[in-house]
Amino acid sequence: MGIFYSLRERLKNRVLLVDVLAALFGMGAWLSINGMYTQLPLLVFNAPEGWGLPSYIVVLIQAANIGGVIYGVMQQFCKGKVSDSLFISILMFIGCLSLLLMSFFYGQTVEIGGNLHSVPLLALVFTCALVACTSSVLFIPYMSRFRETYLVSYMIGEGLSAFVPSITSLLQGVGGNPVCREVNSTDSIKKYEQYVPPPLFSVSTFLVLIFCLQLLSFISFILLKTLPICKKQRNSQSSSSYKNNNENEGVRSSMMPSSPEKGRSLTSDGDNGRGSAFMTESHDFESSPSPVTAQTKKMNNMTYTVFLIMQACASALANGLFPAIQSYSCLPYGNVAYHLAINLGSMANPVACYILFFVTFTSLSAISLIAFPTLVVAVFIFVTATMSPEPPLVNTSSGEALVVISWVLFTGLVSYIKLAIATRFRKNGGKGLFWYGAMTQVGSAIGAVTGFALLNYTGVFKSYSPC
């Protein structure tokens, strides 16, 4: 009875429609990038960039952070003149249009310098990433206009932006591993070509489905903005709006548009931002700081510095280098392994966030203990990529299972570590979250550039063809 009473109390002072609209709005933040990312196992075999396609995408996503910077500058120099709701509407429209165009033109190529490149795909990936990265400093501040309970719904929706595309992609499948088949020819010389069995439905169909979800997110934002029942749930008309200034000061500082890194540090962190966000924020909103939390001992300079270095290294690997080399690590074991590693890894991210709710380790010794097996798994992943196309246990089911499990473990453990560090900085107060966000961006950028350079300007990583 106590459980049902508690549930009734939680639902009594909220409007379910606003919860649903907030969640759908949040889902649109990273939906386009997450959806496109799940299609890489199908795209790498047709794109002229081949297995190196992810390295281009990772760099473009990092470059798209310029959107948040531009918005922050506009807020500083055009105070009161920049309508955030108009800005959001423009971004959401760009996201919808980009997905729709991508569904038709993702396979088109353009010759540059004598080489073919997937210019339409890469250009549209950049515009989608622009929406995702800018959402980190724009969407959450907009949601702060509503009662704080609805920000939790928004964050849950943002977590779904990784989960929903992954589930859809798993249903889609990849058809199987590439094979070599004979091509009919008029001469006596036998010719062969690589053939990839088709999935349950095409990349175009998948992108159209994601477009429909993105459009639904756009419509949800419009309804949040215009419906009278939604307007009544805003802070200015709510009796429960921001009663605790101290509790919300940290939230306000993390949302300041003048420092885009602050907002992004809590909302994307990711490997394309997928789902690592909402638990950090929702944890703060769902439970008021206890006296123990308020009196948490300040970190000394050594601990502070070590945490920042760990965050930079984790971001460099998880957001930059490893997404770029994932194809070289997984594809020697088969396209199915790559498909499972990407999609199950995406699900591991929000799962790690849920675990942080119940099992929270924020001390340096505890996080270091978690970091050790993470490093072991990371070394194995890097070895499989550098040894491509003949990594350990290749052409065995045990090797395929091992590489998938390794990627899922790596994604989950790194997500937990990054969120645990964010929680520690949150409790510590001061400018910790600013430097957390800054080191996230620095590490991610270094990892992305390093991965791109290694893949495209050295012979360290090698692909193969069944023919």
UniProtKB/TrEMBL annotation:
Keywords: Cell membrane, Membrane, Transmembrane, Transmembrane helix, Transport. Belongs to the riboflavin transporter family. The keyword Ribosomal protein does not apply. Residues 236-273 are annotated as: Disordered. This is Riboflavin transporter. The chain crosses the membrane at residues 15-33, 53-74, 86-107, 119-139, 151-171, 200-224, 304-325, 337-359, 366-389, 401-421, 433-455. Plasma membrane transporter mediating the uptake by cells of the water soluble vitamin B2/riboflavin that plays a key role in biochemical oxidation-reduction reactions of the carbohydrate, lipid, and amino acid metabolism. It is a multi-pass membrane protein. It catalyses: riboflavin(in) = riboflavin(out). It comes from Frankliniella occidentalis. GO terms for cellular component: plasma membrane. It is found in: Cell membrane. The gene is LOC113205700. It comes from the Eukaryota. Residues 236-248 have a biased composition (Low complexity). GO terms for molecular function: riboflavin transmembrane transporter activity.
